[in-house]
Design goal:
By secondary structure, the protein is α/β, with parallel strands linked by helices. The chain folds into two domains: 102 residues, no CATH class; 189 residues, no CATH class. The chain has eleven helices and nine strands.
Amino acid sequence: MTLATGIGSHPGEDDAAYAEAVRVVLGELPDLPYLPEVPGRGAAASMTGRAVAVTDDLAFDLQPAGWRLTDAAGRDQRRARSQLAQDLDRLEEQAQGYEGAFKTQLAGPWTLAATVERPRGDRVLADHGARRELAQALAEAVRRHLDDLRRRLPGVDRWVVQVDEPALGAVLAGRVPTASGFGKHRSVEPPAASEALRWVLEAISDAGAEPWVHCCAPGVPLDLLHGAGARGLAVDPATLGPADHDALAGALEAGVAVALGVVPTLTPVDDVTDRVLRWLEMVGLEPSEALVVSPGCGLAGASPEWATRALTVARTAAGRLG
């Protein structure tokens, strides 16, 4: 059976929008729903804010330039934790009795290193020791996050943790700007990138969940993600080069889950089944249980109407393929 899911983010600017996002996800994606994000509510609800909320081993505060490591948890980190707890309460309330598979998302170690500042300024990416500490703290945080979710959703028998790495391509290519904006951080070599990612993915596997990696930006070597331990790859095929399509097809053939982002995030379209079939024909494969249909990226910039419709379109296409 081909499944459908979403990437994570939804439109909205308040808690009512979050409650609606939970309702939509549970209603439109009965086979692989997920913990939604509504980043329009502020920094505490952003992808980075969610990671800050679950990472108890490090302290953060919020500065005009974004999140920063510090010596003690600031008010904004406490606010992020409180907001996440409230979001999980809403999920628990609406998902009572749910049984099956479920997905949650967290920012990956390299995206955090490229967005979080060190105590004395500039990105964590500039400090080998700091980025190592951040990745290891995130690995521990994932375990605690899964424990909390399992307590709240006891009927889930298949857990997926999607590690979001939109900045990984820029990290590898040396395109992340310094704090001054006049230079770029040095590129990270693939072995080092793989190592930090592996710590987080292994923590997910050790906790009994499936580690997926999502990146809808170009320039990420899929072989690196697979080699680091990803058992699922969530990508937008429109961003892939010829070699990437072959690598993705090889992963799918090997049983790695592939969430094919063929549903547009902004422009309504209904020919999604044909898009998937054309891609499968191009790479010489048939539909399989490892194939997942999804939007190309998050839906935070979409209208509420299209955010709902996009998930409906994904579910319908998955049913036709199945």
